[in-house]
Amino acid sequence: MRESFIQAIDNLRANKLRSVLTMFGIMWGIVSIVVLSALGEGFRLGNDAVLREFGRNMSIVWGSRTAMQAGGERAGRLVNLTVDDVRAVQAQGRLVLAVSPEIQRGTRVKSAYNEASVTVHGVEPPYMFMRTIEVDRGRQLNWSDETNASQVAVIGWEMAKQLFGERNPIGEQMLINGMPYAVVGRIRRKDQDSNYSGPDNNKIFVPFAVMSRHLPRPDAPLGTINQMLVMPHDEVVAGLGAILGSRTGRVEDIDWPLEREIRWILARRKSFDPDDRDAINVWDTSLQTMFFDRMISGMSSFFRIVGLVTLALGGIGVMNIMLIAVKDRTREIGVRKALGATTAAIQRQFFLEGFFLTLISGGIGMLGGVVLCTAVNTLATLPIRFAGMIITWSNSLLALGALIVIGLISSTLPARRAAQLPPIEALRYEM
User: Fold this and answer.
1) Does residue 415 share a domain with residue 342?
2) CB-based burial, 235-244: b 16+ in 10 Å, e otherwise
3) 299 and 419 both lie in a single domain
4) Which pLDDT band holds residue 7 (cuts at 50, 70, 90)?
5) Looking at the structure, do residues 407 and 326 belong to the same domain, yes or no?
6) For a FRET experiment, which of 9, 217, 362, 381 has its CA 20 to 30 Å from that of 332?
7) Does residue 56 fall inside a structural domain?
8) Nearest CA among 130, 146, 138 for reference residue 164
């Protein structure tokens, strides 16, 4: 084996230009697999991070207008959601894990240092979990704040800087619509590219009980909310794959069980047809997440296929060069066989030459791909939905496995061709 290895290396060094040109195809194939796979993984992780910044799997429900007649009521009737509707969904929803009402209202807020116009949101504690409203200082709103109607607030990162500058806002007092509130938490800085009422960095959150008392909706009866947020059980979300199957089309065209259950509960309370999908508007982030995952998964699979095809073309180049090498060295093969070289020895030598050529070029390509990915992550300004060039173990093993398979396939045929040459015919061959 040692002798065969030395001979293989010597023969590759004797044909430097041909070896380098052959290696380029394999190197480019490995670089393609590494870079394209890292690109797909970067988009997947970046998209997951963006969706998480908006919130976990949840449905946002707004009241709308009916499009169908029901119960003697005309079409076009306005449907307003109330706190009692939220409690009914929580009590009657078999698929519902958590729910929170939400009231939002723009008002003036004043601190001892500055003042600003801001949107204040009255929410219950589950809302903070569903919307990933996470604090880097202080604490979250809790059920004690809700039960006691405590005048406390969690403030967005940008709003904290506007009202308090570089000071620590925790424990500071501020006036919201003239009423005093204590700041108990500051939201970590969030990078959002989607929302339904503005970035969380610019908001203030207070307990729903306080909001409904001090800042109710001025355009609707007392107890009316702007929207409710509903989170399903984990097994409901897990079943989305089976619901979607191979379906294509818009997210809005899919009527999935959680939305249907919410609509049936509210239809009984609001006297509209449960099949009237226009009576309430539902934005379901679980479906959105599933569609994005399918799109990113398809893109990643396409990238892998492109890389594998490129690597296969490089393998064909290696096979072609090795077949040419067998033809060029036909007389050498005949001499070696005449001097006692066995068929296995000849086959092993040509196999190792092709296999070493593939592995060496593949190793260089792997190193080049890693360097390129590192350079992009270090030097480039990455967009919000792209987490960078992420090289994973699975993609690395895919590249290594593909390289070995291509090396075996591209080396076996030329080696068999060389080993099967009859010694007499090989010795007659004229260069």
Assistant:
1) yes
2) ebbeebeeeb
3) yes
4) low
5) yes
6) 362
7) no
8) 138
Domain boundary among 182, 203, 232: 232
- End-to-end, the C-alpha distance of the chain in Å comes to 29
Q: Which residue has the higher pLDDT, 371 or 304?
A: 371
In this structure, the answer to whether residues 116 and 185 fall within a common structural domain is yes
Residues contacting residue 87 through CB under 8 Å, at least 6 positions apart: none
Instruction: Please give the residue range of the domain that contains residue 161.
Output: 96-232
pLDDT tens digits, 227-278 = 999 999 887 776 666 555 545 555 555 667 888 899 999 999 988 888 888 8
Give the pLDDT band (50/70/90) at residue 2: low
Choosing from 194, 212, 232, the residue where a domain stops is 232
CA pair distance 83, 221, nearest whole angstrom: 11
How many C-alpha atoms does 382 have within 13 Å on its Cβ side? 21
Q: Express the helix, strand and coil content of the chain in percent, nearest 5 each.
A: 55, 15, 25
In a domain, residue 162? The reply is yes
3-class SS of residue 295: helix
Joined tokens for residue 274? 């449960």
